[in-house]
Amino acid sequence: MAAEGVGLTPGEYIRHHLVHLTNKTQSSIIDFSVINIDSVVINVILGTLICFVLWLAARKAHAGVPGRFQAAVEILVEMVENQAKSVIHNASSRKLIAPMALTVFLWIFMMNFMDLLPVDLLPLAWQGATGDHHAYLRVVPSADLSTTLGLSVSVLLLCLFYNVKIKGLGGWTHELVTAPFGTSKNPVWALLLGVVNLLMQIIEFVAKTVSHGMRLFGNMFAGELVFMLIALLGGYAALSLSGGLFFVGHLVAGAVWAIFHILIITLQAFIFMMLALIYLGQAHDAH
Questions:
Q1: Which pLDDT tens digit goes with each residue over 29-73?
Q2: Does the pLDDT at position 169 exceed 50?
Q3: Which of 146, 219, 240, 242 is catalytic?
Q4: So what's the pLDDT on residue 1?
Q5: What pTM value is reported for the model?
Q6: How many degrees, rounded to 5, is the angle at CA 119 between CA 145 and CA 40?
Q7: Residues 120, 1: contact at Cβ < 8 Å?
Q8: Which of 145, 148, 180, 207 has its CA 20 to 30 A from that of 39?
Q9: Out of 90, 146, 154, 215, which one is annotated catalytic?
């Protein structure tokens, strides 16, 4: 922070770290053509890494006494498989959903894990590589709302797919206008109830999707801010003649929060995975 933050106020320092590397200058108007390049690139790298590790584990798996690596992967696979079985009773669906849930869990964990890197490490490296001391870079994809909502929308699309696949288009359409309040033999009441049921179903889908993405984003964004505040303590220590206490506070607070944050990033990845499984399980259930 000292190297980058000379002349910057704490507010300017935090605002600088909250700006994405994008394909075009952002404006105050919502523009869906703006792409957060840093989130996309880091997501692709982490996703590729996760797929490679899982492929390596499958390639080296054997029936004998497993090594530590194989045992760790088997524990993860068994944990996710057990969770999938508890909410999705269709064995055919689990062949796709369980591996997807495992990949999502590990992928989100790795996104969250980027928060444990020193705040200025990758941004300063990027600035050095580009020669631009004002270059932006955010390294925690799950603290980007477009990433978390993209994941939750993907879960929504899968839910819609399984609703149609399991119940049939006609069966799901009938469910949309008859649940949760049922229907009536009276044509007028049947129409009114159908409209209300459909609105309730739409609200439910939207609410689940938004809350699914916002929960992960909110927790990771808050964690990112805390690490920035802790980094400011280190900056004050470097800029102040009596900065010894700030430096000690920087080390202690950073270590304590990092240890606690390991639990948070794991828990958030697990919660996102479990909610995805629960929503997909609900898509298999008839009202």
A1: 667 788 999 999 999 999 999 999 999 999 988 888 888 999 999
A2: yes
A3: 219
A4: 41
A5: 0.90
A6: 40
A7: yes
A8: 207
A9: 215
Instruction: List the alpha helices (DSSP H) in the chain.
Output: 2-5, 10-17, 37-60, 68-87, 91-113, 121-130, 145-178, 187-239, 244-284
Closest CA to 251 of 239, 264, 237, 262: 237
Of the candidates 146, 211, 240, 242, the residue annotated as catalytic is: 211
Q: Is 112 a catalytic residue?
A: no
211 classed as catalytic:
yes
Percentage of the chain beyond pLDDT 90 is 70
Nearest to 136 by CA among 7, 36, 226: 36
Q: What is the mean pLDDT of residues 104-115?
A: 96
Domain map of the chain by residue range?
A: 2-284
Dump the DSSP string for 10-53: HHHHHHHHT---BSS---SS--TT--BHHHHHHHHHHHHHHHHH
